[in-house]
Design goal:
This protein has 250 residues and is an alpha/beta fold. It has one domain: TIM Barrel (Alpha-Beta Barrel), CATH 3.20.20. The chain is 43% helix and 12% strand. Helix 3 links the parallel strand 2 and strand 3.
Length: 250
């Protein structure tokens, strides 16, 4: 079974053993307790990650933010200001600054990452066409500050590793075709693990570093939460396909 905590542990161990340089990014969209469980697992394996929290009740939990930070992980701000402010640039910037200040009252923050908000017509990254996040003490936004010419981006968006076809924003379009042509496309977690474990695999031979994004609410022991996440994601993917088709027609 895929997207279990056991499977994620197997992925981490394969990454460590492969010798490949990798970064772990976690988008905490929902159920922050899942993120704490994942953070504890990574800590036991001697790994560090960045956890990006939205500033909404279903994501931000002050005690969990502190607990994950205490485990040695970094905390980032998962911003969605242009969506929440309905495209108003000035209001969105004020919203961003206010939320960043609140989060910094809990832990240090120097990393941010856009929350995709697939049903919104607004891309919160467009805020930086008008303002400079570096002036706020931010030194990293993965969509702008990752060298994708040398870094393979993998995300579990859509509860699959090849979900870029149903993703509205969590993808790197200018490099996706190149990765596909090189055979660096994976569907299941086992697909990735098999290549990590094989020194002669396309992935190991490519010499790419890896940026791996997961949404911890997707990774659960088998049970009600697992089934619920599976069903909800099937429905979301159907909606996302329609949104992507509509966007491509424009």
């Amino acid at each position: 079974m895929d997207f279990t905590l056991q499977k994620y542990s197997q992925l981490l161990k394969a990454l460590k053993a492969s010798g490949i340089s990798f970064q772990l990014r976690h988008d905490v969209d929902l159920r922050p307790h899942n993120s704490l469980v994942v953070a504890e697992m990574e800590n036991k394996l001697g790994l560090k990650a960045v956890y990006y929290f939205r500033m909404v009740p279903e994501s931000y939990n002050k005690a969990i933010v502190k607990a994950i930070y205490a485990l040695g992980h970094e905390i980032g701000y998962h911003y969605e200001s242009l969506t929440t402010c309905r495209g108003d640039i000035e209001e969105a910037y004020r919203d961003f600054c206010d939320n960043l200040a609140k989060l910094r009252q809990t832990v240090p923050i120097n990393k941010i990452c856009m929350h995709g908000s697939p049903r919104s017509p607004y891309d919160s990254r467009d805020l930086w066409k008008h303002y400079d996040y570096r002036s706020l003490g931010i030194d990293y936004e993965p969509y702008f500050d990752t060298d994708f010419a040398h870094t393979l981006y993998l995300t579990d968006t859509g509860r699959r590793w090849d979900g870029y076809n149903v993703s509205v924003r969590d993808k790197i379009p200018q490099y996706q075709e190149l990765w596909e042509n090189k055979g660096l496309v994976f569907h299941t977690t086992d697909d990735i693990i098999k290549q990590l474990n094989n020194p002669s695999s396309t992935l190991r031979q490519s010499r790419y570093a890896m940026l791996i994004t997961t949404h911890p609410q997707r990774w659960n022991p088998f049970g009600l939460a697992y089934v619920k996440e599976y069903v909800i994601q099937l429905l979301k993917n159907s909606v996302k396909k329609l949104l992507v088709k509509t966007k491509n027609k424009k």
